[in-house]
Design goal:
elongated; 28 strands; alpha/beta; 19 helices; 8-stranded mixed beta sheet
Amino acid sequence: MENDLVGLMQALINTAEGRVPADVLFTNARIVDVYRLRVVRGQVAVKHGCIAGVLFEGRDCEDASVPAWEAERVVDCGNRYLAPGFIDGHLHIESSNIRPSEYARMALARGTTTAIADSHEIANVCGLDGLAFMIEDAQRAPLDIKFMMPSCVPALPDEQAGAQISAADMEAFMDEHRGAIFGLGEMMNLPGVYGADEETCRRIAVGAKTVSGQVDGHAPMTAGNDLNAYAAAGIIADHENTGVEEALDEISRGMYVMLREGTCSHDLAALAPLILGNPALARRCCFATDDRAPSDALNIGMIDNACRMAVEAGIDPVVAVSMATLSTADIFGFDHGDLCAAQRRGAIAPGKRADILLLDDLAFTAAPHRVYSAGELVAEDGAFVGTVAPAASRPGLEDLEERLRGSVKLPELDLDVFSYEFRPGEPVIDVTPGNAVTGMARPETAEGLRRIMLIERHGRGVEAQSAGIDGDGAPGTGLVGRHIGRGWVRGFTITGGAIASSIGHDSHNICVVGDNPADMFAAVRAVGQGGFVLVRDGEVVAKIDLPLGGLMSDKTAEEVAREHDAFMEAGRAMGIEPPLDPIMGMIFLPLPVIPTLRIRPEGMFDATTFAYAE
């Protein structure tokens, strides 16, 4: 390791001094300097996948189009902008419904060269085998994915998930997979933090043993002493802010804020005034996608989309680039602190990894002209042109993949389970389109409401039925309130049918929403071994199969994007209007760690009091 470090250091120094030729030389570029927040013409020399030197026109060289170094290959940038590769501060690959190697192709095409990935979705289904699969599959592609250790599996201690991961389990995994875990993923167990629960604190402490030593956060609507406690635990960032004052509270307590712009949660526009009011705060703010559907990612973008929206909101384009690169690097220690140039990133500067974007403009309305990962061309004009190694190249990967299949273990069910009456004044989930946060309503009638159910799918219901829980009743009736939650939702306007999904954050039980029991029953039966199902008048009109843990497809990103588009079209035809997403708008309704009202297998749950709503 030391010899490798010394060798790379010598190669970069010798290239910078002109003693050896560069591997690649970028000339005739308008360099986006994220340190001084300026654009200046210049040229950049790359050696062994790292930046060896940067020369700026006027001060360092007379003409940026005239090569100042010898190089094996010269890239004339044509006066395009040359910017650092984007860093996604927080995301769940599984939420794009594709495996990591496919996610890499998609992300690189849109300019994301580093991704901070929390794989707690697959871990909630398949435990640490799921995390091992994600790590191994990611090695096949040139996107640098930094995997966080899921901190909350399950999201709350009594959630009916498919696995449990303790602090001891985390440490054992990291001992077995040395250097594979970058940090600790979002700490969602807020009651555990506020109460100084020993196991929760032990999990947070595991973060110190990861590569970065960092612990990511998740603290929606946290304030006062609860926020003090959260920050005191050493948690560095939060992506759950939906308002400026909430974000400022966290910044004042030393935390970083991630402006999230995903498929379900659209928070950037509401948070942009944070930067417009005080541009200096950009160094404490970055971008994150969190959850991004492949159709949106390929057609609209990812972090590049966040940059575009930031510019449209009035944020200076160079500041937007700095938030997409240097700010994220600051959060996770990429800008400094690691002596190896192959790990430092977030800027066009010597001694940084050569993750480089060539942009036609700084409006971000199209995919980057070219994307370089560690100095290698991997994407051009929105198309991936790099290499993904075959699965067989990673020993054990195919076995890990097989362990992800067959994860849906549903109990027997009868139509009677889906037929229940509305009780005036009962708590109803009030959907806020474009926002993961929900409200709680108590209407007097069922007008405008839809049924919602959550059915445990990890085998507990099956075991309970084997023990005779249904008695003389119809199959599944004995599971209601134990392993089948039933309730009502307002604002999810599906008409004449139902949607069912094997994705229901974070425990990923089967969630179904519909306007009649028969179609809800049919949709659940059609889920099979995982996926999204849309039923109208008893017929399946759209389906996306997700056989890997019930979360991911084994198809390409483009194929899944087309399936998503078809599903969206069918959902719109059934009355689900923008900005509500037919898929993303539903799969967060079971998430018990975001306010306000959620559904769990036991019933309706108030995520502000962490108690079941009566």
